[in-house]
Amino acid sequence: MPEPSATNEIILQAKDLKKWFPVRRRLRQALQGERRWVRAVDGVSFSVRRGEIFGLIGESGCGKTTTGKLVMKLLDPTSGEMEF
Ligand SMILES: Nc1ncnc2c1ncn2[C@@H]1O[C@H](COP(=O)(O)OP(=O)(O)O)[C@@H](O)[C@H]1O
Ligand SMILES: [Mg+2]
């Protein structure tokens, strides 16, 4: 049952968020121009409605903290967007 004050209004929306971090390359890879990435967050979408409690659950290293930082705009996404 929603709280009396709750509405269905979406107050936060993540759209296809991606955050890839560059991996330090070996000299040979660097010379060959090879680029490698850690896909910390790779296409995450969700919305949170007013009054709703949203949980983010997953194994260690799956991207929870990076997602949180993208939501708080402490990190710029590689692609995708956050809307408030
Ligand atoms: N600043 C960073 N530079 C490079 N890799 C990172 C950085 N931050 C996180 N990662 C990597 O991204 C992945 C997701 O990390 P993280 O969001 O901290 O996961 P969780 O919080 O779910 O444990 C991990 O592989 C982690 O090593
Ligand atoms: Mg974490």
**How many domain units?**
1
Q: Report Rg.
A: 17 Å
Helix-strand makeup class:
alpha+beta
**Uncertain stretches of 5 or more adjacent residues:** none
Order of helices and strands: EHEHE
Count of discrete alpha- or pi-helical segments spanning 4 or more residues: 2
Proportion of residues in β-strands: 35-45%
Biggest β-sheet description: 3 strands, antiparallel
Give the beta-strand count.
3
Distance between the termini: 24 Å
What's the overall average pLDDT, rounded? 91
Listed once per kind, the bound small molecules are: adenosine-5'-diphosphate, magnesium ion
**Silhouette:** elongated
Side-by-side strand order of the widest sheet: 2-1-3
State the helicity in percent bands. Answer: 10-25%
Q: How is this structure best described in words?
A:
The chain is an alpha+beta fold and 84 residues long. It has one domain. It has helices at 27-31, 64-71, and strands spanning 10-22, 37-49, 79-83. It has a 3-stranded antiparallel beta sheet with strand order 2-1-3, covered by helices on one side. The chain is elongated, with a radius of gyration of 17 Å. The mean pLDDT is 91. Magnesium ion (MG) is lined by residues 64-65.
